[in-house]
Amino acid sequence: MIKFLDLQKITEQHTLEIHEAVSRVIDSGWYLQGSENDLFEQNYSNYIGSKYTIGCANGLDALIWIFRAYIEMGIMKPGDEIIVPANTYIASILAITENGLKPVLIEPKLETYQIDENQIESAITPKTKAILIVHLYGQCAYNQKIGEICKTHNLKLVEDNAQAHGCLYNGKKTGSIGDAAGHSFYPGKNLGAFGDAGAVTTNDVELAKIIRSLANYGSSKKYVFKYTGRNSRLDEIQAVVLNVKLKYIDREKEARKKVAKYYIENISNPKIILPEISDWNSHVFHIFPVRCEKRDTLQNFLTENGVQTLIHYPIPPHKQECYKDWNNLSFPVTEQIHKEELSLPMSPVLTEDEMKYVVEIINRFEV
Ligand SMILES: *Cc1c(COP(=O)(O)O)cnc(C)c1O
Predict the structure, then answer these.
(1) How far is the CA of 223 from the centre of ligand 1 (A)?
(2) Which residues of the chain register pLDDT less than 70?
(3) For residue 55, what pLDDT is reported?
(4) Distance CA 242, CA 44 (A)
(5) pLDDT at res. 355
(6) Residue 303 Cα, ligand 1 centroid: separation in angstroms?
(7) Could you give the CA distance from residue 110 to residue 91 in angstroms, rounded to a whole number?
């Protein structure tokens, strides 16, 4: 069986180093808000190219804190509108609704799966306060037009960088392009911890201060509470794991690219629609998405032949029960993607034999 993502094998590459690092934290007797956390925040800021990194409990919280901090700053208030792609993981949308803000869903472009910048301006109202772009599947969603729209309409640009660590736009890392970015280090992400972890990056000192406080019960001084925050901190053990794994992220990015190149050059089945790559530096291949009209048949065929695949994602946010009021809305492009998308095995440890086998099976697929 070729696994979709072999986390055990990814970890095995660094077993000794990680065991040594985790042991160091265990032996230190200091498990929260310590030197590993400080070091990770420094390392990650350097990597992304942002002034501040604030470690927190997970990627969803990172996004929640960004909007909450803007509310605390008086820049947004409940009822305000946030523009966001309709085809994203539910967390992007939850971060908005959790704050009493209103998501305004925008269709993606079918070729790239990224938010369609040409449909943004007609959705802007006096209540619009921000655009949340999602670098979905690891591909940069930003472009010049989005930047111009934000400037013209005085909107904050927030990035959901959960899937795109190390992705570049004109030499700049995603996560450093907008006003603030949320990052996830969920184990399956390109930079993954051994449990839940996340971070916010920003150049805004005020925003950084408020988020640090919100994620620590709303306190920046012990037993003094300025905000009704929550406990949303990054563990020292997760921080030390991330400090080790961050060293290898660029090498792993190249390995993922190699897999993607191999798939693109060798999958020749006309029933399979391959992703369009305009700039190989602007994609870190968290996911390698293909589309197929008979997606479910394709997935069964691959499973029967020992190739594990996943669907990202089977049900779009506006069709979920938790957002009942939107269930009748129509987003044809989004719905088509959710119906046709299939994610092929993708990881930095996929061997050439495995890639070859995946391609061989997929090229043999007939409807
Ligand atoms: C994973 C993910 C998140 C949430 O991250 P968690 O760490 O799982 O909370 C947010 N947005 C996107 C696009 C994601 O893929």
Answers:
(1) 31
(2) none
(3) 98
(4) 9
(5) 98
(6) 26
(7) 21
